């Protein structure tokens, strides 16, 4: 796969170049410091697989740049700003959002998303996979089975948790962290110190809240990026 790097910071360009060189199926075809240079490049090099794009560029923001391109290649955003993730995922071409400093493991995770995206035909509709697991909870000395598909969210309440499902609530004497360890992380994400949500049940997302059913669930600043990443995976 051919890629280009677009970043006005020298250190960031060097780090990304090093990570790309360690990736066997990725080849650097150009390194740029501003959007104008990239526009000229794309006019003569339309066949490109991936752009590593800084959001904060001279004259043009990364988002402004993407709006000028017809049929853009896949894009991995790189930035120092953690607060633009929601805006980033308004663009279908963006597959991941890397916050500097970028680690090897996080880079590899982003590249795996690129490979998965490249492997899926453009006209193939994405389908939310169904969770095929269940959990058993101890309530009044009875072990009650709960289908994970039915869970909307889980809320901490003192020494107990409340599991909200499509049909009823279950009050269980345990902690949020203990239950989280039993849940598949690709579907369930902690949005706040008191809440875990089922990503498949999300109706709407705003900067600091998620709508599930008729319930508004808080999203803390520290958990917002993780939430957006989970939604992208689904």
Provide a descriptive summary of the structure in words:
There is one protein chain. By secondary structure, the protein is α/β, with parallel strands linked by helices. 28% of the residues lie in helices and 33% in strands. It is built from seven helices and 15 strands. It has helices at residues 10-21, 35-44, 62-67, 85-88, 104-119, 176-180, 221-233, and strands at 2-6, 27-32, 50-54, 74-79, 94-99, 134-139, 142-147, 151-157, 160-165, 169-172, 188-192, 195-198, 202-205, 209-212, 215-218. The strands form four sheets. The chain has a five-stranded parallel sheet with strand order 2-1-3-4-5, sandwiched between helices. The protein starts with a strand and ends with a helix.
**Count of β-strands:** 15
Order of helices and strands: EHEHEHEHEHEEEEEHEEEEEH
Mean pLDDT: 87
Spatial order of strands in the largest sheet? 2-1-3-4-5
Helicity, as a percent range: 25-40%
Work out the strand percent. Answer: 25-35%
What structural class results from the helix and strand content?
alpha/beta
Largest sheet: 5 strands, parallel
The helix count comes to: 7
Summary, kept brief:
The protein has 234 residues and is α/β, with parallel strands linked by helices. Helices cover 28% and strands 33% of the residues.
Helix-strand layout with pairing:
Layout: E1 2-6, H1 10-21, E2 27-32, H2 35-44, E3 50-54, H3 62-67, E4 74-79, H4 85-88, E5 94-99, H5 104-119, E6 134-139, E7 142-147, E8 151-157, E9 160-165, E10 169-172, H6 176-180, E11 188-192, E12 195-198, E13 202-205, E14 209-212, E15 215-218, H7 221-233
Parallel strand pairs: 1-2, 1-3, 3-4, 4-5
Antiparallel strand pairs: 6-7, 8-9, 8-12, 9-10, 11-12, 13-14, 14-15
